[in-house]
Amino acid sequence: MLESDTVKRFDALVVGGGIAGLQTALDLADQGFTVAVVEKDASIGGKMIRLSKVFPTLDCASCITTPKMAAAAHHANITLLTYCDLKSLDRNGTGFQATVVQQPRYVDADKCIGCRQCEYNCPVLVSDPEQGGFCGTKAVAIPFSNAIPQIAVLDPDQCMLCGKCASVCPTEAIDYFQKPTTFTIEANTAVLTTGFELTPVTDKPQYGRGAIPNVIDSLQMERLLAPHGPYNRVLRPSDGMEPDNIAYVQCAGSRDKSMGVPYCSRVCCMYAIKQAMLLSGALPLADITIYYMDIRAFGKGYEQFYQNAQAMGINFVKAKVAYIEPGENGNAILHYEDQVGGGITTAEHDLTVLSMGMVPSWNPAGICPVARGDDRFIHTIRPKLAPTLTDMEGVFTAGAGAGPKDIVDTITEAGSAATEAANYLSARSRINAA
């Protein structure tokens, strides 16, 4: 932990601790540069650690991400600053100065040993966002089982101040009076790997605004499919029954001007196909239908992946779902136009997954004078030749912070950003030495 009002110097600052940020930090650290990783969540790992498997190989997402998380946590040249908000990033002479606020965990990070006694003894159950809201967690808890760091976080809005967590903590780490602290980072270069969020289900009135119980988004389905998910198998949220008829609605949050997302989010087709294939294995008797406008299988092996899904019996219907209304027993009724001769029709499904689009999770306005594009992602000045260059000299970007992309492209881009940053640092060293 950094003390309040202190200044810490690093060669590079990486903003975001997802797969792009971790890969960038590791590549720079392995070259001997010191790196600070600033992450807003209580754990590093980003969206990837929350996934079940990755396409098109269907490899375990945790098996890929967890070793990188551990490598970053134990690397001598990397400092992880989790649960921190970047408040400003400005040029300071030839380098950069960042103001960072450490949000209070209400748990002393230097004392917490990750024993989870506070969590086990807390009497307050709250909805667990890490499990899609499908199950409960405690008001004080480690975010998830393989979180790094293994430090508990107390939710002050849910805590009833009963004192049980403090009474059982063997190291007296609970601190109900903890305050935000501010510190400064000085670095010679910065890499923005700020990631994405899904468009909210509640923003789509045609699809029920999240009020239809068995209409969920794709990240919630990832948790249902995950081996460490809320139910340990795929069940309907409303009644705990196994679904027999599952629908995917493509372009539910992108290619849609009414949502403010006119662009294609690129990965939605592939993650829907991946999930459908996993569902076909988990629920072999279930009927699975994907309603799509266009299938965009753009990467290596992606077209074959799509064809494999068809061969498995997954039904693809070329249609745009106009609206969804609640049916009986928590089912959803989809109204759509079949674009291959079926005309306007309806279909009832007992579980519906909305393939929501990707939007940037970070707005640099007022924080960093880096430009954004029309899509609100970080603008890259040479997207074809050098897709990691921003309009600020010495500031680079990688991953979904610069636009929608899959994990393969994200990791490749992170390596490119690390190379650009390393070259920039080396050039600066030569200039200073001259």
Protein architecture, described:
The protein is built from eight helices and 22 strands. With 434 residues, it is α/β, with parallel strands linked by helices. The protein has three domains: 1-103 and 180-195 and 361-434, FAD/NAD(P)-binding domain; 104-179, Alpha-Beta Plaits, CATH 3.30.70.20; 198-358, 3-Layer(bba) Sandwich (FAD/NAD(P)-binding domain), CATH 3.50.50.60. The strands form six sheets. Strands 1, 2, 5, 6, 7, 12 and 22 form a seven-stranded mixed β-sheet that branches. The protein is globular. The mean pLDDT is 94. This is 4Fe-4S ferredoxin-type domain-containing protein. Keywords: 4Fe-4S, FAD, Flavoprotein, Iron, Iron-sulfur, Metal-binding, Oxidoreductase. Belongs to the HdrA family.
Structure summarized in a few sentences:
This protein has 434 residues and is α/β, with parallel strands linked by helices.
